[in-house]
Design brief:
By secondary structure, the protein is an alpha/beta fold. The chain contains 9 helices and 9 strands. The two termini are 29 Å apart. The structure holds guanosine-5'-monophosphate.
């Protein structure tokens, strides 16, 4: 069954959305996989994080991140407006709570591009809604090559990211699923299969009792 097959079933049976986390060391292909999923599946929307880091060329405020200053970030934490937050590469990143909760209630899935620290917090706060996938590169030379091909960062930054990658990879066992991204088409198909199966979990199909009642009324 494809991901869109799961979507069709949710037209007949009301469903609670799920929170899909894709984490990986930078360069392992997570961003490509996320973009493809968002393009292919209208039932999935992206959680746009807030961050205190500077906007990079090509990034759009409100689409890639909401770029905010440290004071505003602090205020959001105080008001309980962030579902999770973390320090990554010297900057702060966090997930606004309200859009996620609204999407889940509408039966939409929310995709998160967050690190292992954020995933741990989501597991504590929203374990039943969470489906987490860790994406690994096929090898470290392959990862370095992909980081260099992006050519956005200096040598120093690339070396720092390679060192961080080793640390990030040690968290693989905290995830529900692990996908090795040797071939991006294959990895994408694996992500779609995971999503299709998770959507069919009984406890997420909150309209099942009503659907069964309707079936029985047809006897
Ligand atoms: P970048 O600055 O390259 O866009 O992202 C750096 C890292 O921060 C990535 O590993 C990304 O997954 C992580 N990240 C982005 N947004 C969030 C967030 O809202 N929460 C957490 N915990 N990590 C995030």
């Amino acid at each position: 069954m494809t991901a869109s097959g799961g979507q069709q079933q949710s037209d007949a049976v009301a469903r609670r959305g799920l929170m899909l986390v894709l984490s990986s060391p930078s360069g392992a292909g997570k961003t490509t996989l996320s973009r493809r999923l968002l393009d292919a599946d209208p039932g999935v929307e992206l959680s746009v994080s807030v961050t205190t880091r500077k906007q990079r060329p090509g990034e759009v405020d409100g689409r890639d991140y909401h770029f905010i200053d440290a004071a505003r970030f602090e205020a959001m934490i105080k008001r309980g407006e962030l579902l999770e937050w973390a320090h990554v590469f010297g900057h702060r990143y966090g997930t606004p709570r309200a859009p996620v909760e609204a999407a889940l209630v509408r039966g939409h899935d929310v995709l998160f591009d967050i690190d292992w620290q954020g995933t741990q917090q989501l597991r504590e706060k929203a374990d039943r809604d969470l489906v987490s996938i860790f994406v690994l590169p096929p090898s470290m030379p392959d990862l370095e090559q992909r980081l260099r091909r992006r050519a956005q960062d200096s040598d120093d930054v690339i070396h720092a990211r390679m060192a961080t990658a080793a640390d990030e990879m040690s968290h693989w066992a905290e995830y529900d699923y692990v996908v090795i991204n040797t071939d991006v088409d294959h990895a994408f198909a694996q992500v779609q299969s995971i999503l299709a199966a998770e959507r069919l979990k009984r406890e997420r199909q909150i309209g099942l009792s009503e659907f069964i009642r309707r079936l029985q009324a047809q006897l």
